[in-house]
Specification:
It is a single chain. The chain is 58% helix and 14% strand. It has 184 residues and is an alpha/beta fold. The chain has a single domain, classed as Rossmann fold (3-Layer(aba) Sandwich), CATH 3.40.50.300. Helix 1 packs across helix 9, helix 2 crosses helix 3 and helix 4 runs parallel beside helix 5. The longest helix is centred in the last third of the chain and has 15 residues. The protein is globular, with a radius of gyration of 16 Å. Bound molecules: adenosine monophosphate. The site of adenosine monophosphate (AMP) has 16 residues, from helix 2 and helix 3.
């Protein structure tokens, strides 16, 4: 059983790597960013509420995310493992996830911190060309990462479940380090 949380700044390659890894382990890749983008594309109530925050590079309010994660992790396909990408994003979400996993009788094997230098992050995001990948939003997302998400490195580091993976290597090399970690 593989259950992994991907931490790391925006542009580190979490989405790409989480997707490859989840496919190879045949478990769901759960990306809150993907779920929110789909909701905004479809104009659902969730999407309408999230849109402004995403465009500004802010985190969407926790109450929009927590129910969504509770439901997703309760689905049958999530009982055989998962890769979480983009959640948790702050300490409140991480504490919620702890309680939720206890309730669901699930654990988390590893928290992967995908490490990439700042200059490289900006270059990668500008190339990606997603709607929220303009320079102002990128800058804001990096600030939000540092102030709200980076504290999770200590949060998980204290429990020894954290592993650093160098994300500044060719894609295949990063994938192969991650696959070694994901082996049950
Ligand atoms: P991502 O694809 O993970 O970079 O997420 C894109 C955007 O979706 C972020 O900049 C946030 O606005 C929003 N988002 C994604 N995941 C979360 C989360 N766990 N909590 C709050 N906002 C999120």
């Amino acid at each position: 059983m593989t259950r992994l949380i991907f931490l790391g700044p925006p542009g580190a390659g979490k989405g790409t790597q989480a997707k490859i890894l989840a496919e190879s382990c045949e478990i769901p890749h759960i990306s809150t960013g993907d779920i929110l983008r789909e909701a905004t594309d479809q104009g659902t109530p969730l999407g309408q509420k999230a849109q402004g925050y995403m465009a500004r590079g802010e985190l969407v309010p926790d109450d929009l995310i927590l129910d969504l994660i509770r439901e997703r992790l309760s689905q049958p396909d999530a009982q055989k493992g998962w890769v979480l990408d983009g959640f948790p994003r702050n300490v409140t979400q991480a504490e919620f996830l702890d309680r939720l996993l206890q309730k669901l009788n699930q654990g988390c094997d590893r928290v992967v911190n995908l490490d990439v230098p700042d200059e490289e992050l900006v270059t990668r995001m500008l190339k990606r060309g997603r709607q929220d990948d303009n320079e102002t939003t990128i800058r804001r997302r990096l600030e939000v990462y540092r102030s709200q998400t980076a504290p999770l490195i200590d949060f998980y580091g204290e429990r020894n479940s954290l592993v650093y993976v160098d994300g500044n290597l060719p894609l295949e090399e990063v994938t192969s380090s991650l696959k070694q970690l994901a082996q049950p």
